Amino acid sequence: MKTQLVMAAAFASTLVVANPASAQDREGWPDSFTVGTASQGGTYFAYGSGWANFVAENLGISGGAEITGGPMQNMALVHTGNLQFGLTTMGPARESMEGNSPLAPGVKMDNVCAIFPMYETPFSVTALSDSGITSISDIPDGATIGFGPAGSTSDTYFPRMMETLGVNFERRNGSWSDLGTQLQDGLIDVVAFAAGIPIPAVSQLEVQTDVNIIGMTDEEAKKITDNFPVSEFVIPASTYQSLEKDSRVVSMWNFAIANCDVPESLVYEITKLTMENNDKMVSIHKAARTSIPKNYTKNTVLPWHPGAARWFNENGYEIPESQIK
Description:
By secondary structure, the protein is an alpha/beta fold. It has two domains: 5-120 and 253-323, D-Maltodextrin-Binding Protein, domain 2 (3-Layer(aba) Sandwich), CATH 3.40.190.10; 121-252, 3-Layer(aba) Sandwich (D-Maltodextrin-Binding Protein, domain 2). It has helices at 43-59, 71-80, 90-97, 153-164, 176-184, 200-208, 218-227, 264-275, 278-284, 306-314; strands at residues 5-8, 32-36, 62-66, 85-89, 112-128, 143-146, 169-172, 190-194, 211-214, 231-235, 247-259. Strands 1, 2, 3, 4, 5, 6, 7, 8, 9, 10 and 11 form an eleven-stranded mixed β-sheet that branches. The longest helix is centred in the N-terminal third of the chain and has 17 residues, at 43-59. The radius of gyration is 19 Å and the shape is globular. InterPro entries: TRAP_TAXI. Keywords: Receptor, Signal. It holds the Pfam family NMT1_3. Residues 1-23 form the signal peptide.
């Protein structure tokens, strides 16, 4: 899969948050690091590239974000050590840990560790206003639906959800930016987004055309939560200018991950920096409002990296030894 590396240089003069580099135990630290994100136009890329820059600037090492296929591919790349860090969603993480990843069937990706909670990924549908589609039940038989990059959270779960809700569709994959353009040009009927809010591609669409951001009925939400590892979620009306009221959907939690062999001291400093500076994280992306320590309990799948677990335990968030790699 073609990837693009987006690197951020780090300079000592920009150290404004972390402790001085000389005060840190740097044994075994790499000269640089890379974070696996997802396609451009999605929240993972905006969040991951901003976070990588923040870490690089404050810890004095070069770092950046790599465009990938999303959570499934990030699990594989981090497991093998091709990337030190990545972003993933709990559903794909579980499937990868159990050896059920479509990228490597039978391979248990168990060298991936959690480092901190990110945000919930809502599953929502967007269509052009002039399409007349205002609900999931309005999606016409045989409609072409864009599900994001192949292997992404949306591509893994949203087609199954649509089938569960009785929607008959043609499947289309691509980056969120590309699918947004295809929707605007009338080449596809619907985009089924799964990304932290606000989704950059949706915000861009709103500027260029009139769209309907479609939620779920009570019955639809119950059917999906009964059949998938998700919970109900409400997209506040203030998230998008196209929403006149809150929109009920479903969501899945995301966590930042590390290869379990990354030095404990480095992961400790990264966790400390991230968890103790939420205002900075929110300035990177509004979805980071929930990137806060108390949400560590949302990880029910991955073992914790020892460096991350040390910070949480030192600050009153108990992670038992049995859950640490």
